[in-house]
Amino acid sequence: MPRRAPILRALPAVETLLRHPALADALARIPRPLVVEAVRAELADRRAALRRAAGAPPTPETLAAAAATRAHGALRPALRRVLNATGIVLHTNLGRAPLSAAARRAVDDVARGYCSVEFDLDTGRRGERGAGVERWLTRLTGAEAAMVVNNGAAAVLLALSALAGASANGAPRRVVVSRGELVEIGGSFRIPDVMEKSGARLLEVGTTNRTHLRDYERALDRHGREIAAILRVHPSNFRVAGFTTRPTLEELARLAHRRRVPLIEDLGSGALVDLSAMGLEREPTVRESLTAGCDVVTFSGDKLLGATQAGLILGRRRLIERLRKDPLARALRVDKLTLAALEATLPAYADPSRAAAEIPAVAMLGGAEDRLEARARSLAEALRMRVPELDVSVERGAGEVGGGALPLQRLPGWVVAVRHPARAVDELDRWARAADPPVIGYIRTGKFRMDVRTLRDDELPELAEALGRSPWPTSAPAGRPLAGAPPDALED
Ligand SMILES: *Cc1c(COP(=O)(O)O)cnc(C)c1O
């Protein structure tokens, strides 16, 4: 130890290093305490290294540059834009739907200053939060009324709480649900648990694969006034095939109305347009559910609708008014930025062909195969230029809808598959994630793959450039890779 002490003393003092020109830029951009912290950490690491093994101490130049990199790194946000090359359009872990140009402009405009979020510009008085979104939703779907909450899970929670939560006199209030619809959406959203949190009591009917109208009838006969609602849940993220049945929505609505209980539908994805027109599996639209007689329909704003995270609730005015008055409504209310994005996205739905062109998620779902192939070839070309050592090929691939929607639907498309003569495929995956912006692809059959469906045109050259700049990894990976993880590690 004592023999190395002079070398340790040869390291500059913190204050001296802070005056080095290589740190001037960091000090100008980054709060000083963070730069000081980075300098201290860098010096501590170097000191420890010198204690472990003798060697020449680093120059002040090297130290200052390393500290500057550290300081910039500390400021790098955890939430960053990434290039989604997974081919999964509504990738929950990557933020589901990208916003349309109109929505991005509206968010920027509203974020810039003050806004009329609860101010009526005609009367000069207090206005209703979300009024604009509600106007569009009722217009596009034919619903009597609408409201917006924080996400799809919140919409279900609020609907159940307001319409079937514990009654004032403490009498049990039950909600009838088919055993085939007690679904888990991902993470902690499970229908029975949400039901319990809402204060409603679950009344299961039928079996996993078959539930008949008479099962609902019997429950209503047996429990009469205790029944507060019938809940229908869209099995968004799974399919039961074979010997199955459940009543149509119309049949269920007729029964509910005869017995004077509301029919609530958790529609999950909430398509506003018929996706089968784009060659996709048929997904019930919001308007169809309302026409069939549902009294309240809930769905997400950032799944097939292609806007931002939100829970949309549509239905009869009388019921929506009860939801608005529920104390939970305030806890679940949305921010002005969410409302701005939604209100700017919805008008495109007045014309389905505009929606398909202007709403990125909808456009990506409908991406034509020949266009995708041409785009994959242009990405491959750019990659060969930027990273010549890669072995690059263009292959067929299959994307997915994601977000727990249309689970069986494959989206045939094209991918750029890469290999490196000297590096393992998981190293390629790490290298791509370390790029700026990070590139998220996936590994299959020994190649790192990038699906162009979920990349914008201008992101193709950007991706090639980002990979061209990305340093090759030297150390062990930190954390588990997202793109290479088995599907159940990712959440709907
Ligand atoms: C996705 C989904 C939800 C939850 O919606 P979030 O917006 O993710 O909170 C609820 N129910 C169903 C059927 C869903 O598919």
UniProtKB/TrEMBL annotation:
Gene3D superfamilies: 3.90.1150.180, Type I PLP-dependent aspartate aminotransferase-like (Major domain). It is found in: Cytoplasm. InterPro entries: PyrdxlP-dep_Trfase (IPR015424), PyrdxlP-dep_Trfase_major (IPR015421), SelA-like (IPR018319), SelA_trans (IPR004534), SelA_trans_N_dom (IPR025862). It comes from Eiseniibacteriota bacterium. Pfam families: Se-cys_synth_N, SelA. Its cofactor is pyridoxal 5'-phosphate. Belongs to the SelA family. The gene is selA. Residues 8-47 form the L-seryl-tRNA selenium transferase N-terminal domain. The modification N6-(pyridoxal phosphate)lysine is found at residue 303. One of its GO terms (molecular function) is L-seryl-tRNA(Sec) selenium transferase activity. It catalyses: L-seryl-tRNA(Sec) + selenophosphate + H(+) = L-selenocysteinyl-tRNA(Sec) + phosphate. Pathway: Aminoacyl-tRNA biosynthesis; selenocysteinyl-tRNA(Sec) biosynthesis; selenocysteinyl-tRNA(Sec) from L-seryl-tRNA(Sec) (bacterial route): step 1/1. Converts seryl-tRNA(Sec) to selenocysteinyl-tRNA(Sec) required for selenoprotein biosynthesis. This is L-seryl-tRNA(Sec) selenium transferase. Residues 466-492 are annotated as: Disordered. Residues 476-492 have a biased composition (Low complexity). PANTHER family: L-SERYL-TRNA(SEC) SELENIUM TRANSFERASE. GO terms for cellular component: cytoplasm. It comes from the Bacteria. One of its GO terms (biological process) is conversion of seryl-tRNAsec to selenocys-tRNAsec. Keywords: Cytoplasm, Protein biosynthesis, Pyridoxal phosphate, Selenium, Transferase. SUPFAM superfamilies: PLP-dependent transferases. Its EC number is 2.9.1.1.
